[in-house]
């Protein structure tokens, strides 16, 4: 049987931030993708929906609002989306476009999807999956409204 100190050390290690010690860079290495453009206002429905929402994976990560300036009339293709979020190599980015039902098979993210539809006044909503380093991926639930790409994103750790 382990001592109390050993057990607490185990719990501390298990609860440590997996990103601890990594820097957000704009060159090579770990890069934070852009979710918000300067000067844009996040729709109230998205603020409310993302305030307590988490994407369930090996690391339950919070959803964060997405609001990017976009002048297109239809949702962007994979390369255009990678450029919008400032992916360091948009032409080589692992971007996959998914339908809502394909991504949310059990309907557990209905509030995020509904908030995105409300914020975009009923536009088509799609999910963009961007493969990151290792077993990480980001899921972007977005639609088009008022000259912006609006929605939410979350990090997933998939093993």
TrEMBL record:
Gene3D superfamilies the record matches: Nuclease A inhibitor-like
Region Disordered, residue ranges = 1-28
> What protein am I looking at?
Uncharacterized protein
């Amino acid at each position: 049987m382990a001592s109390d100190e050993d057990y607490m050390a185990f719990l501390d290690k298990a609860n440590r931030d997996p990103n601890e010690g990594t820097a957000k860079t704009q060159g090579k290495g770990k890069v934070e993708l852009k979710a918000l453009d300067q000067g844009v206002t996040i729709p109230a429905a998205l603020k409310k929906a993302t305030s307590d929402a988490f994407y369930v994976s090996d690391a339950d990560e919070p959803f964060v609002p997405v609001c990017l300036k976009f002048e297109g009339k239809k949702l962007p293709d994979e390369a255009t989306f990678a450029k919008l979020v400032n992916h360091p190599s948009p032409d080589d980015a692992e971007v996959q476009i998914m339908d809502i039902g394909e991504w949310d098979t059990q309907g557990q993210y209905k509030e995020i999807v509904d908030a995105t539809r409300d914020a975009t006044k009923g536009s088509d909503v799609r999910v963009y999956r961007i493969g990151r380093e290792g077993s990480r991926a980001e899921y972007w639930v977005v639609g088009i409204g008022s000259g912006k790409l609006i929605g939410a994103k979350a990090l997933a750790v998939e093993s």
